[in-house]
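Today's session is about reading a structure prediction critically. Students often jump straight to the picture, but the first step is always the sequence itself: look for stretches that repeat, for charged clusters, for runs of hydrophobic residues. Only then move on to the predicted structure, which in these notes is written as discrete structure tokens rather than atom positions. Here is the chain we will use throughout the hour.
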Amino acid sequence: MTTTRQTISLLILVVLGLTACKQRKTTEIRTDFKKYYDQFSVEGSFALYDPQADKYIFYNKDQFGQDFSPASTYKICNSLIGLETGVINDENFVIPWDSVTRHNPKWNSDHDLKTAFKNSTVWYYQELARRVGGQQIKYWLDKANYGNADTSGGIDKFWLTGGLRISPKQQIDFLKRLHDNELPFSHRSMDIVKSIMIAKDTLDYVVRAKTGWSDEDKRMVGWYVGYIEKNGNTYYFVNCIQSTDFDKPDFAKARIDIAYQILDNLKLTAE
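Below is the predicted structure for this chain, in token form.
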């Protein structure tokens, strides 16, 4: 009888312990972050995942599972595919400018992978996609489980105006698998992409990130996604903004400014 009671007591302790472990995963909702979006007159959402504490911080959590066009945030995956297929050798691989003058002056010259990623040079990545080819791109999107892996809409447009969609939740998942070297690409390919993703490199922290901007469903969608490495820890974030005002001059700026204002508030990037 004593043995039975001891066994039951032990099982109860185990169950309580497992329950406590599950309860450690926390979610924090920050409605006060609305002020950062209001200052630019945009809608949007923000999510940060802290794997050390297994904790999510949300503003407008309802959008966390909502699908949007990835726009230029897809350049992270596009770079990986280009490297893995051998279409581009490394971050110094140059694709010559086609001499077509485009609205962004920074695009109107030859680019290598580093500068194309930094300046979000659309034509470079469109040419890269054409060289890789539709069959290979679809194969790697499926293998990497990137968004809905839909390549409809044209080999050089599917991530801009075509069928490719990704949610903020999937953005964080993809970034985490990239950081942890758990994507189906070589470590070399992933290391090169992590290097070109560096947006800020300070004594206290490093930010690796990418912007994105698309027009869809009679609205503009803007992204700033990435992760922060600080004091040996990693924090994943995604900022997604939307506006129906297509003449908004500060929309591009808002994507990044809102993200850093929130990250500063969370003491992750404050100097």
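Discussion point for the tutorial: Residues 2-23 form the longest helix (22 residues).
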